[in-house]
Amino acid sequence: MTYKTLSPNKKIAMVAHDHRKDDLVNWALRNRDAFIGHELLATGTTGKLIEERLNLPVRKLLSGPLGGDQQIGALIAQGEIDVLIFFWDPMEAQPHDPDVKALLRIGIVWNIPMACDVATADFLISSPHMQGNYKVALTDYDEYKNRTF
C-alpha cells in the first residue's frame, strides 16, 4: 500500500447534470466560506454557474457530454483532483452515461472522497480532513500494470 498526503488546500472538482445544477449551486453557495483556500474545478456550465454565484475562481473544463467528465477522470488518475462533488441525476438517462460511470469508477480506483448528493456533500465539506493534511491510502497497482499475457 502506498500513500499520498493531501495538503490543506484541496483541489475540488464539481460536476452536476442539468436537473441537479440548482442543487449543486445552492449547496455550494451555502458552503461558500468552506471553499476559500481551495482550488475549484468544474465542467462547463456548472463551473460558470458556481463562479458567478460564489464569486470565486473556477477552472472550467469542457461540458460533461463534450468530454468534461473524462477530463476530470484523467485529472483524478494523474493525482490532480483531491475531492469530487458529482450531483448526477439517477432519474434520467444521460447520453454520456458511460463517461459518468467511468468517472465514478476512477474516483473509486484512486480512493478520492466523493459525494453524489447533498447529505454526503455536507458530511464531506464539514469534515476536519477538508481543512488539514490527510493521508490517503492508494492501492498498489504495480502487479496489475506489470502483468503479462
List the helices and strands and how they pair.
Blueprint: E1 2-6, E2 11-16, H1 21-30, H2 32-35, E3 39-42, H3 44-54, E4 58-60, H4 68-77, E5 83-87, H5 97-109, E6 114-115, H6 118-125, E7 134-138, H7 142-145
Parallel strand pairs: 2-3, 2-5, 3-4, 5-6
Antiparallel strand pairs: 1-7
Shape: globular
Strand order of the largest sheet: 4-3-2-5-6
Helix content: 40-55%
Count the strands? 7
The CATH homologous superfamily is called Methylglyoxal synthase-like domain
The amount of beta strand, in percent, is 15-25%
Provide the gyration radius in Å: 15 Å
Largest sheet features: 5 strands, parallel
Instruction: Tally the structural domains.
Output: 1
Number of helices: 7
The SS-based structural class is alpha/beta
Mean pLDDT: 92
CATH topology heading: Rossmann fold
Uncertain segments: none
CATH class: Alpha Beta
CATH architecture: 3-Layer(aba) Sandwich
Summary keywords:
single chain, 149 residues, alpha/beta, Rossmann fold, 7 strands, 40% helix
Q: Can you walk through the features of this model?
A:
The mean pLDDT is 92. β5, α5 and β6 form a beta-alpha-beta unit. This protein is α/β, with parallel strands linked by helices and 149 residues long. The chain has a single domain, classed as 3-Layer(aba) Sandwich (Rossmann fold), CATH 3.40.50.1380. 40% of the residues lie in helices and 20% in strands. α1 runs parallel beside α3 and α4 packs parallel to α5. The protein is globular. It comes from Pedobacter endophyticus.
